[in-house]
Amino acid sequence: MKQILLSSVAALTVTLGGLATTVQAENPLISGDEPMNIGQEGQLTAPTPDAAAQEKTGEMLRQQGVELTGDEPMNIGQEGQITDPTSDPEAQAKTAADLEAEDDASGAISGKYD
């Protein structure tokens, strides 16, 4: 009796599983086999190339590429505003003395610790 019951349940399970896969395959929009806009291919048009617009876009991309990569400074044409630093021997001597005093106190600059 148990064997008949188990074989009936197994047969029913296989039948329902096959039925479920058959129902899914009949509806391509649910399974994802076909795009949602079936039959609307005629509405799609190929882009018309426009050489002037393409050149303008290319120039914009080149300029942005230079800015993003840092190949050239951002202030091109403003070199006249940049001046060389003037050396101040007194300030340099004070900085050297301060660094030497700090190194003597901690050894952190030269790496020589007591």
UniProtKB/TrEMBL annotation:
Residues 29-55, 68-114 are annotated as: Disordered. Residues 1-25 form the signal peptide. Keywords: Signal. This is Uncharacterized protein.
